[in-house]
Amino acid sequence: MTFDSNPLFGKLTLIGIGLIGSAIAHASRRAGLAAHIACYDRSAEVLETVRRLGYADSTHAELAGAVREADLVILCTPVGSFGELAREMAPHLKNGAIVSDVGGVKAAVVRDVGPHVPEGVHFVPAHPIAGTEQSGPEAGFAELFDGRWCILTPPPGTDAAALETMKDFWHRCGSDVEIMDPRHHDLALAVTSHVPHLIAYNIVGTADDLETVTEGEVIKYSAGGFRDFTRIAASDPTMWRDIFLNNREAVLEVLARFTEDLSLLQRAIRWGDGDTLFNLFTRTRAIRRGIVSAGQDSAEPNFGRNRPKPGEKK
Ligand code: NAP
Fold it and tell me: DSSP labels for the chain?
């Protein structure tokens, strides 16, 4: 990858330095996107880690100082905190600044942040579709967004130049960019991310509750499919609580469809209807292959996990 070395911004401020905040700092550094990267977090320990790792030019325990003179401010905390943070920082934003975010839901973010954005400041919500189940200021890395999508959901009347700048920003962080209506984003992500996470949280909880299966067996035989659910179900509890509370309608709509389809599978199993099962499994296998050929996952055996070498303990 080649990088345009002209900084897009004088000062970039990141609010909340976890996986995504730290990854944006690294990616911005890699591409020379800002002359100054400022990091704000409510935790002194997080700020100490940021200083130790050295990916920010300044660290701030106070919001006003962090956003003062910033050209771009990105909210990288859980979505439930955005409204209050936007209200608090509003009086300190400079004229012409861009406010953005990385929240996994978009209609609620437009609802909660939009009213606090002062006249003369541009609001361009964003959602990078990239992540891991890790959290915290040590989890981010510069390549996190490479080859991944970033969806921008500009509200009606968004300044065209600010939107172009944010497209450029995400391209230079390594992403492909798509523009979408916030409600459409929320429905699409309910299908591709939110409900799959809910299913993972649920199945891992159910397995944990089943008294006939011991904890030892759950761990020992987890490679049978369960392990992939446990990876997803290890995602940050605060972030995911906020996603479900802020994308209620779309998640409930998709869950209703899911429950209906699950009942059909239950019925097929009960009545020995192998064709229904076989046809669905054939269709879903093709979807998996489509994802791999689109470069959105690995086709390596065992999903790219290292296999134990002969003689090595499993
Ligand atoms: P994370 O690793 O848990 O980091 C969040 C950081 O924000 C933590 O340092 C947290 O501090 C801090 N924070 C929380 N509430 C705060 C507040 N009110 N004021 C100041 N700091 C606060 O989370 P993440 O995975 O980076 O996710 C952050 C955002 O990215 C979320 O909105 C999520 O929807 C979005 N996102 C996540 C992913 C993903 O895969 N993880 C992907 C795309 C988008 P404490 O530890 O003290 O709470």
Answer: -----S-SEEEEEEES-SHHHHHHHHHHHHHT-EEEEEEE-S-HHHHHHHHHHT--SEEESSHHHHHTT-SEEEE-S-GGGHHHHHHHHGGGPPTT-EEEE--S-SHHHHHHHGGGSPTT-EE--EEE----S--STTS--TTTTTT-EEEE-PPTT--HHHHHHHHHHHHHTT-EEEE--HHHHHHHHIIIIIHHHHHHHHHHHHHHH-TTS-HHHHHHTGGGTHHHHHHHTTS-HHHHHHHHHHSHHHHHHHHHHHHHHHHHHHHHHHTT-HHHHHHHHHHHHHHHHHHHHTTSS--SGGGGPPPPPTTS--
